[in-house]
Structure prediction request, 76 residues.
Amino acid sequence: MKSLEDIASEALLLPKDQRFTLAHRILSSVEPEVKAEAEAAWDTEIRERIRRYDAGLTSGVPGREVFAELDKKLKG
Prediction:
């Protein structure tokens, strides 16, 4: 059986799109099962947020600002 280091080293040699797919598969394997009701609620929420954004009722926040705020809170 290969060690974690061996697997990680080999994975880093993959093309970027394949690394992304591999990471998604690994993360999906440890995420809790999503209930259909929660999935439907999130779909509704996402569509409503897009509708409000498209209608000009809300604005976006640049990612760098979001991550800076998170960093500040986590170091807090």
Summary: Residues 1-31 form one domain. The longest helix spans residues 36-54.
